[in-house]
From TrEMBL:
Protein name (record): EfeO-type cupredoxin-like domain-containing protein
Gene3D superfamilies from the UniProt entry: Cupredoxins - blue copper proteins (2.60.40.420)
InterPro entries the UniProt entry points to: Cupredoxin
Length: 151
C-alpha cells in the first residue's frame, strides 16, 4: 500500500515537473509577440514595411511617419472585424477627397477608408500621397484611433 502510494506520488511530481518545464519553455513566445508590436518604428517604415497592427486594445504604432507616396498596411490582429478609415468619425472627410459616402461609388478605391469590416488576419492598404498629419480610427469601434504623418 505504501509502495503504491510512493509510485503514484512520484508520477504526480514528475508530471508537474514536465508541465512546469513546458510552461517555462513557452514563455519566450509571448516576448516575440511583444517585439512584433514594437517593430513598427519609423526606421523600418522607410524599408517599405509600413505596417500598423490593430489588436483588441488599439493600433500600433499609434503614430507612424512615412514619406509621401508610400503605402501603409493596416493589419487586423484582433479577434473581431476592423474598419480603418480617415478621421473624423462618422464622416471620414479629413483626408483630402475622402468621405464615407464615397464608399458606394467608383471612388471607393482611392479614398482613405476600408469601406467595410475586415476579418481577423486580413488587412487594408492605403497609399498616402498628401503631406500632412492624418488621423484615422476603427469605424467599428471609434474609440480606437491613431495617426499617420506623411512627410
Ligand atoms: Cu468612422
Amino acid at each position: 500500500m505504501n509502495k503504491t502510494f510512493l509510485v503514484v506520488a512520484l508520477i504526480v511530481v514528475a508530471a508537474l515537473g514536465i508541465w512546469y518545464f513546458t510552461s517555462q519553455s513557452q514563455a519566450p513566445a509571448v516576448n516575440e509577440t511583444e517585439n512584433v508590436g514594437g517593430n513598427g518604428t519609423v526606421e523600418e517604415a522607410t524599408d517599405g514595411g509600413n505596417v500598423i497592427t490593430f489588436t483588441g486594445t488599439g493600433f500600433s504604432p499609434g503614430i507612424l511617419t512615412v514619406k509621401a507616396g508610400e503605402t501603409v498596411k493596416f493589419v487586423n490582429s484582433s479577434d473581431g472585424n476592423f474598419w480603418p478609415a480617415s478621421a473624423m468619425h462618422p464622416t471620414h472627410t479629413v483626408y483630402p477627397g475622402s468621405g464615407i459616402e464615397k464608399c458606394d461609388t467608383a471612388e471607393r478605391e482611392s479614398i482613405f477608408d476600408a469601406c467595410d469590416g475586415i476579418a481577423p488576419g486580413g488587412s487594408y492598404e492605403f497609399t498616402f500621397n498628401e503631406v500632412g498629419e492624418w488621423g484615422y480610427h476603427n469605424h467599428l469601434d471609434a474609440k480606437f484611433f491613431g495617426k499617420v504623418v506623411v512627410e
